Amino acid sequence: MRRTSASLVAGALVAALAWASGPSSPAVALDPTAGVADLTQDINQILSDSRLTIARAGVVVKSAQTGEDLYATDAGKLLTPASNTKLFTSAAAAETLGLDYRFPTTVLNAGRKAGSVLTGDLVLRGTGDPTMLAEDYDALAAQVAKAGVKLVTGRLVADDTWFDGQRLGNDWAWDDETAYYAAPISALTASPDRDYDAGSVIVAVSAEDGKVKVTATPPTDYLEIVNQATTGNETDVLIERRHGTRTVVITGTVADSYQEWVAVDDPTAYASTLFRAALKKHGVKVLGPTVTGAAPEGAGELARHESMTLGELLVPFMKLSNNIHAEILTKAMGRKAANQGTWAAGLKVVTDFARANGAQVINMRDGSGLSRRDGFSPASIAQFLTAVRGKPWFPTWYESLPVAGNAERFVGGTLRSRMRNTPAADNVRAKTGSLTGVTALSGYVTSADGEPLVFSIMLNQYLSASPKDIEDQIAVRLARFSRTAATADVSPLRAGQASQAGDLECSWLKPAEC
């Protein structure tokens, strides 16, 4: 996984420790009223934007030092959070699973080994690792070969029973079914890249010698690709998997290279295909077919791979707002807490933890926020963000939040192109959230006085382009907030500071700036 430089990580850790709760002296003596009236007036002015006339806006700002509410409007209303939901899922995972938690993937001997022959089945068993790459399945196959197995007389059994068989989340839109950010969830899966977009394949096209060349990453024959595209003077191409099938149809014209992340229909079968091909490459022949099922009791371990720790996974998960990580962690929590790898069991863990830490107005239907029936109040989010500052895992979790205006992709994340060249840059650490008609930004900022603030901004049911610039104006105003000095600049952000508008999280669209 790509990581930040040592200095950036050290700086982030120092900032996180400074944010953790505990006895500390404020940078200035706090007057309960000075400056707050101006802040209220300025936020009200920002929220008077005509784009919000027909919309719903809930905003809460709190002092993390004193617990004082500095600003609140529609604080207790239930609003759609989009990916702000991940604040609760990630924190509950840190609490329930622990930062050292790893996902093991194992290969088991479900037969009798004599010499180089395994009489019986070979089992590939997963526990949900979203970071498994084709090269990791190759390494498992190499371990099997190194153990002396050359021939398996039985079947290749894919054991994905660590989770249940429900692949798609509650209320997910049918037209997202082939999108990689809504990929099916399985205890056996594979990622095509080190963003760890589990359950998807990158399909790329390019124009070569008057023809359209198609490649897949990782190379796999799992997908059936129908190439109907032609070369042309511009690239206007559609790469889309047909619903409920393995068939990817490519249409349009191709002049330049272009690629699309495509969700597979069955992650277990996809991962099994990669592993079976790797076995063949390493000289291990499996005579029987690939089937799904549970490993028998007493099956011996032949090979093992363990993922990075949860503490490390939080970085790509939160910085890039990875939905699949959220759902896998939700089921993993259910498995640990109730021995049930289900959404229902996992969501109970998250909601119980959220309510125990101040989130009273809450409705969770999935772990990522892709469901439009998810709901939180801004007050609940702000109270939750305040409460978790005392957790031992808080510094690592805080570091995983996107950082406003920081160009490093695995530091700035979904905020890397926002609030640049403002007091909020390298200051605001917050989770973004985007769906059509929904945007949210909740997190932490240090005021001009050095006072730590917690905020939640939730904008719903607008019909305009995404008003993320309104979120940014509020966040910048909070970075300028002073109890001792007047602040009057609430002008719109200039070019280079404005947020990228969009109906989805920018990282889901894979542009260079995200």
Automatic annotation (TrEMBL):
Annotated coiled-coil segments of the chain: none
Keywords for this protein: Carboxypeptidase, Hydrolase, Protease, Signal
Record InterPro entries: Beta-lactam/transpept-like, Peptidase_S13
Single GO term (MF): serine-type D-Ala-D-Ala carboxypeptidase activity
SUPFAM superfamilies referenced in this protein's UniProt entry, alphabetically: beta-lactamase/transpeptidase-like
Keyword Signal: yes
Matches recorded under NCBIfam families: PBP4 (TIGR00666)
Protein name: D-alanyl-D-alanine carboxypeptidase/D-alanyl-D-alanine-endopeptidase
Gene responsible for this protein: dacB
